[in-house]
């Protein structure tokens, strides 16, 4: 019995008919990309606002959290009170930026005996409001008396308690 073997060469290169993608495959990919863009694109303007708000909030918290170290480093008693500028007599207006004020001249009652206090200046972002019901005192030793801070941003309100001895805002 004889067997005939036929050898046919196989083509190693693709022909023009089998190369590339079908129209259906391209349409599916374009549809998926369009659907993804439609879901993600409306969130971009809000994303930048949230990042900006977060950076401003962290900057303000960092300022408040470093106050005990500032008092210790300057060896100066500090007071944080949003209404302090209203209670300082006009005759002391020029002194309050660069020098300390006598505690008796401030018109606020200190919980300890202090020879002089320096008002704390916080950089508050535009549109933000800070309310401090009771003044918060920072001793030259770095310890503070504690208190409450209320931050208002638009219609949102945040309230933080600063607990002695270090008065740190934690997130």
User: How far from one another are the termini?
Assistant: 90 Å
In DSSP terms (H or I, runs of 4 or more residues), the helix count works out at 4
Largest sheet descriptor: 4 strands, mixed
Tally the beta strands: 7
Low-confidence parts lasting 5 or more residues at pLDDT below 50?
84-99
What is the percentage of strand-forming residues? 15-25%
- Percent helix, as a range, is 25-40%
Order of helices and strands: HHHEHEEEEEE
Q: Tell me, what's the shape?
A: elongated
| Class per helix and strand makeup | alpha+beta
Rg over CA atoms: 34 Å
Averaging pLDDT over every residue, what do you get?
79
- Kindly report the spatial arrangement of strands forming the biggest sheet: 2-3-1-5
Primary descriptors:
4 helices; 171 residues; 4-stranded mixed beta sheet; 7 strands; 3-stranded antiparallel beta sheet; elongated; alpha+beta
Q: Care to describe what's here?
A:
The chain has 171 residues and is of the alpha+beta class. The protein has helices spanning 23-40, 44-65, 67-74, 84-87; strands spanning 78-80, 101-102, 116-119, 128-131, 136-138, 147-153, 156-162. A 4-stranded mixed sheet has the order 2-3-1-5. Strands 4-6-7 form a 3-stranded antiparallel sheet, with no helix packed on it. The model is unreliable at 84-99 (pLDDT under 50).
